[in-house]
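Q: What does the assembly look like in three dimensions?
Context provided by user:
Components: four
Sequences:
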Amino acid sequence: MIIQIEPQSDVPIYTQLTNQIIEGIARGYMHPGDSLPSVRAFAADLGVNMHTVNKSYHELEKKGIIRIIPKSGAVINSPVEISNNSERLLEEFKPMIAEALVLGLDKEQIQELVTSLIQDIKGKP
Amino acid sequence: MIIQIEPQSDVPIYTQLTNQIIEGIARGYMHPGDSLPSVRAFAADLGVNMHTVNKSYHELEKKGIIRIIPKSGAVINSPVEISNNSERLLEEFKPMIAEALVLGLDKEQIQELVTSLIQDIKGKP
DNA sequence: AAAATTGTTATATTGAAAATAGAACAGAAT
DNA sequence: ATTCTGTTCTATTTTCAATATAACAATTTT
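A: Here is the predicted structure of the complete assembly.
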C-alpha cells in the first residue's frame, strides 16, 4: 500500500498518515487482523520521525480503528469490535454538511456526493 | 444568533467561529445579503481578539460564503453567486466517508447519518 | 540464552501557527 | 466632521508540529 506524504501541506503529517491509513483500510488494501508496520520501520520508510508515526497510531486508536498492543504492535480492529462512535461521527460530519448546504447543494446533491465517494472507495481498483 | 466559543478546545477559535457562522447561515438565522458584524464589534462581543475574527472572515471568503467589501463590511453571498466548489467539497468529505466505512457503517447507514444531519439543520427550531 | 525489535517515555530543540496586543491608515458611513 | 470600517504593520506569548537522541522493559527472533 502506497502512502504519499506532502510535507508542504497545511495538514499535519500525522493527520495525512492517519487519513491515508483509514482510506487504505476502507479500500481493502489492509484488513482487520492485519498488523501495521512498526513505528520505526514505517517512519524510516516514509522519511519522517518515529514520533510522528506514533502520534498517528494513537489517533487511530482513539478513533477505535486499531488497537496498540504494548511491546508488540498495532493491529487493525474489525468493525464488530469497535464501540459505538455515531456521536463523534455526527459532530465530525456536521460542519461539512452545513457548508454544503450553504454553498447551495440540496439534499439530493449531497447524497449524490456521498454516494460517488463511497463507490470511489469501495469500487477498489 | 448565539455563538459559543470554547477556548480550551483543540480546534482553533477562528475555525470554531467559521463553523458556527456557516451553521448559522445553514439554519436560516442569517441570510444572503445580510451583513456580518464588524470584526471589532464581533470580537468584543465574543471576548476574543479582532484579528481572530478577521481570520475567520477571510476563511469564509476563501470558501466563497461571504464577500468582504474593503472599508465597508462582510456580506453573505447567495448560493447562486458562489463558484463551483464541488472539487474541494469532495476532498473535504473523503476522509470522513472513509472513516465511517472503516467503522463498519454501510452505505445506507451513512446516508441515514447525512439525512438526519440535514433535517436537524434545516428543520430549524 | 542472547540479540534484535517492539512500543513507551523522557528531554530538548527548531520552526510554524494561533492568539493577543497596540497602533496607524484611508476610505466609508453617519 | 466625527465615527466606524477593514487593512496593515510590528511585537509578544503560547501552543503545536516535527525532529532528534536516548534509555527502558517486554516481546520476538535467532
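Follow-up: The CA atoms of residues 36 and 63 of chain A lie 16 Å apart.
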